[in-house]
Specification:
The structure is a single chain. The chain is an alpha+beta fold and about 280 residues long. The chain has one domain: Sandwich (Jelly Rolls), CATH 2.60.120. Helices cover about 25% and strands about 25% of the residues. The chain has seven helices and 14 strands.
């Protein structure tokens, strides 16, 4: 028997199109479709996953949080690690790129906010395990990076990079006026083959294999970012681009590195809430 979604979730997700609460029935068919798309292209796009009223609420909540975003304008590598000086200057492990974005950390997102309710809904994690084809999917253990809202204003962009988790779930809450395109190269590396030569050519400007995802507000995007390099192009216009990033992994207890947390949130520990 399919369990009804809890009241705080029911109006946020379009369950008629995306029955993720029905893991033994239509939800299993949806999971199979998403699994096939991920295998073929590295991404699966669930347009309209968040209802129009849910998107409006999440965008308003995101704008209220935007002033709390830690703004980063720096240089980094595609691996989100410090440059490895044992490689030549042009090597991807050493090559620095510019990046600029604001990020609202998980501990700053109120428990009652809509996107946090969706992220912390256990049935969504259970359905994602079906998509990935594993026994269980775990929410990211990082108290800062498990869930965050990326706030990108005019001129800001994200560098070409790989994620440090097996896959990422994101939802565009508010689009910018122009630019802000999500670009990626599917499966550009594997655990056995780092493919440094091709990544170096990409960083040099080669466009071979680059795919642009057409994301609309309310789309839930499933993305295999550990092996598919990706970026966001420069945002144009006065409307901020707001994206919720929902962190999951196939292993429990996964944390961001202190290097990444410092760069993305300006700190490594959550803000104390009281005695």
């Amino acid at each position: 028997m399919t369990a009804a979604p809890p009241p705080e979730i029911a109006g946020l997700v379009d369950f008629a199109r995306y029955p993720v609460h029905d893991p033994a029935g239509e939800g299993a068919k949806l999971a199979e479709r998403c699994r096939r798309e991920l295998a073929e292209t590295g991404a699966s796009m669930l347009e309209g996953f968040i209802t129009p009223s849910g998107v409006a609420r999440m965008a308003a909540e995101g704008m209220r949080l935007a002033s709390k975003a830690w703004r980063t304008s720096s240089h980094g590598t595609a691996y989100l690690d410090p440059p490895d000086e044992s490689f030549p200057e042009s090597h991807p492990k050493r090559r620095l790129q510019s990046t600029s974005v604001g990020a609202v950390a998980y501990d700053l997102i109120p428990a009652q906010d809509a996107i946090r309710r969706v992220y912390e809904w256990d049935a969504l994690a259970d359905w994602l395990a079906q998509v990935i084809g594993c026994e269980r999917v775990y929410r990211y253990a990082d108290p800062l990076g498990a869930l965050n809202v990326a706030v990108m204003e005019e001129g800001e962009r994200l560098l070409w990079h790989f994620d440090q988790t097996d896959f990422v779930v994101s939802s565009l809450l508010q689009d910018c006026e122009r630019g802000g395109d999500f670009e990626y190269v599917p499966h550009i590396r594997t655990p056995e083959e780092p493919n440094y030569d091709r990544i170096e050519r990409l960083l040099d400007g080669e466009r071979d294999g680059v795919v642009t995802l057409d994301m609309k507000p309310g789309t839930m995007a499933l993305f295999m970012g550990r092996y598919s390099i990706h970026r966001v192009t420069a945002v144009e216009g006065s409307t901020p681009r707001l994206v919720a990033l929902l962190g999951y992994d196939t292993r429990p207890g996964i944390m961001s590195s202190d290097h990444l947390k410092l760069r993305r949130y300006g700190r490594t520990e959550p803000i104390p809430t009281g005695p």
